[in-house]
Every structure is written in C-alpha cells, then in structure tokens.
Amino acid sequence: MKKILLTGVSGLLGSNLAFCWREHCEILGIYNQHAWALDGIKTKQTDLSDPSAVRVLLKDFHPDVIVHAAAAVDVDKCEQDPDWALRGNVTATKNLAEAAAKDSKFVYISTDLVYDGVKGNYTETDPVNPVNVYAKTKLAGEQETSRLTNVLIARTNIFGFNVQDKICFAERVIKEAKARTIKGFTDSFFSSLYTCDMASLLSVAIEKDLRGIYHFGSSTALSRYDFADTLAQKLGYGKSLINASSIKDFPFKARRAPDLSLQTRKLSDATGIKVPTEEETIEHFVKDYKNGINGELK
Ligand SMILES: NC(=O)c1ccc[n+]([C@@H]2O[C@H](COP(=O)([O-])OP(=O)(O)OC[C@H]3O[C@@H](n4cnc5c(N)ncnc54)[C@H](OP(=O)(O)O)[C@@H]3O)[C@@H](O)[C@H]2O)c1
Hints:
Layout: E1 2-7, H1 12-21, E2 25-31, E3 42-45, H2 51-60, E4 65-68, H3 75-80, H4 82-99, E5 105-111, H5 133-144, E6 150-156, E7 158-159, H6 169-176, E8 183-185, E9 189-190, E10 193-194, H7 195-207, E11 212-216, E12 222-223, H8 224-234, E13 243-245, E14 259-260, H9 265-271, H10 278-290, H11 293-297
Parallel strand pairs: 1-2, 1-4, 2-3, 4-5, 5-6, 6-11, 7-10, 8-13, 9-14
Antiparallel strand pairs: 9-12
Helix pairs in contact: 1-7, 2-4, 4-5, 6-8, 8-10
Bound molecules: NADP nicotinamide-adenine-dinucleotide phosphate (NAP).
NADP nicotinamide-adenine-dinucleotide phosphate (NAP) binds next to helix 1, strand 2, helix 4 and strand 5.
C-alpha cells in the first residue's frame, strides 16, 4: 500500500482524490485553514508556507509519493494580493521540494492556465505564456520542483464536488440551471476533467512512474456554454436553460485565456488508458452525483 502525502485535502481536488484513493493507499491529507476529515485517511493541519513546519511534516511521515494539490487558486484574489499567491503557489512548493528527499516521487498539480489561450489545442511542448498572477505563480511552482529528480507535472483543469463552502462551475449548473441564471461563454474553451477520472489517471501515472509534464484534461474540448448545456441535458434539463454569453462581456479582475483546449495523447500513450472525452467525463460526474457521492464527501 503506497504512503501518500496529499496536500490540499480540504480543497476540491485533494478531497476528491482522497475519497477515490482511500481504500488503496495510506493517505496523510494536509489542510491549512479548513479542517476536514474522511473515514479511512488521516488528516493534519500544516501551513505549507512555513518551511520549518514542512520539514517536521516530512520528517515524521515518510511518503512514497507527495501529491501536491494545495494552492492559492482564487484567480481574482491572486491578482489583488500577489503576496498571497506567491506564498500559496511558490513558497509552499519550494518548501515541500526542499524538505523532500531528492529522489522522492513528487506530483505537482499545475494548470492549463500556464498557456495564454490564444492558439488552443496545446501539447506539452508548446510555449507557456501565463497571463495573470495566479498562472505566473503556478508556473513558478512548476519550476520550484526542478531540484527533484522524479517529478510528474500534471497540467489540468478540473470539476468535481467541493467539500468547502464554494462551488465549481459544474456544481453551479446543478444548483442554478433550473433558475436559468447560468451564463455560459460560447467563446471560451477548455478540456476539463472530472476529479474522479483524474484520480484514476493519476494513480496509473504514479504506478507507471511517469515523469515530466503531462496534460490531465479531457481528450476533447467544449466551450463553457456547451459544457453547461451538455451537463444540464445529462441531468435531464432542457437546452434553453443556459444563457449564451461572451467572455469579453464579463469584468474579471484577472485576465483570462480564451482557448485552453489540451491534447492528451501523451498521457493516453504512456498510461495505455483512453482518456475520457468531455462528454464522457461529464457523464461520470452526473452518475456519481446521482449516486450521492457529493453527500458522502461533505
Ligand atoms: N479548480 C480548478 O478549476 C483548477 C483548474 C486547474 C488547476 N487547478 C489546480 O488544482 C489544484 C487543486 O485545486 P482546487 O480547486 O482543489 O483548490 P481549492 O479547492 O481552492 O483548495 C486549495 C487547497 O489548498 C490548501 N492550501 C492553500 N494554501 C495552503 C497553505 N499555505 N498551506 C496548506 N494548505 C494550503 C487549502 O487548504 P485550506 O482550505 O484548509 O486552507 C485547500 O485544501 C491546485 O494546484 C490548482 O492550481 C485547479
């Protein structure tokens, strides 16, 4: 049974990974400000921006794998408070990478936002050009892992079930589609992956000891409008519930990247697994929602 140090366990991805992996791995999940517990795993409070706390953490728990999902993720807050972004995305990663053994397996959860979203259909070798503070600090976080010899960088875009008092776009569709308050951009594209599909792909990637940069997205892309519409239809609602809008009309504080579609061929070739399409990954999310996974997580 692999020993996994999983940071960000109180977050969207970390909690969902812990839920999917808990029967097959020994997990120590790290939270900071939001205590969270789940049967079958241990959790601990640690502020990863504190280097001495991180050293103690790794001295006490000798993980086979560090999965670093903690981050300062609120894109607009990062723009307004770059020090907060730096602490959460760069300092925390630096502290973990420095305290970890040089050859430890380190999985850094990164983002599709390292690309500027102009070209779209990105491969892992395309040039990066982050357009906002969040994306710049996430890319700097990738670079902080360079002292380690066994790093997997997972550039992703995710949706799933939050355990904290916040909701992702897919959860908003569940909550608000009937009220017809969802605006879906027709000119913003992504290859978003359901967190439990991410958990399956990531566990094979770790088993196969993949190293380097891989895209963990769906194998196809949809606009935000089509994503919301597909999800609403799979939930049994009608097409007209989503309002078509443009990313240009929305006053974001931080600049956004319009076409973040990702190629996932490298990942499917290396794992031997067919990466789900956007429709398939939405279908898995809906199936788990109907089976009440969101309730089990809270
Ligand atoms: N959500 C997305 O759409 C998306 C898209 C692309 C990539 N990603 C990446 O996926 C990963 C997970 O994102 P998410 O959406 O799950 O994030 P999230 O829900 O906002 O959760 C962030 C997690 O990081 C923890 N954290 C933040 N600062 C910390 C610190 N100083 N010390 C310890 N823990 C700290 C938080 O702990 P507390 O809450 O307990 O303080 C929380 O568990 C991140 O690396 C993110 O960059 C996310």
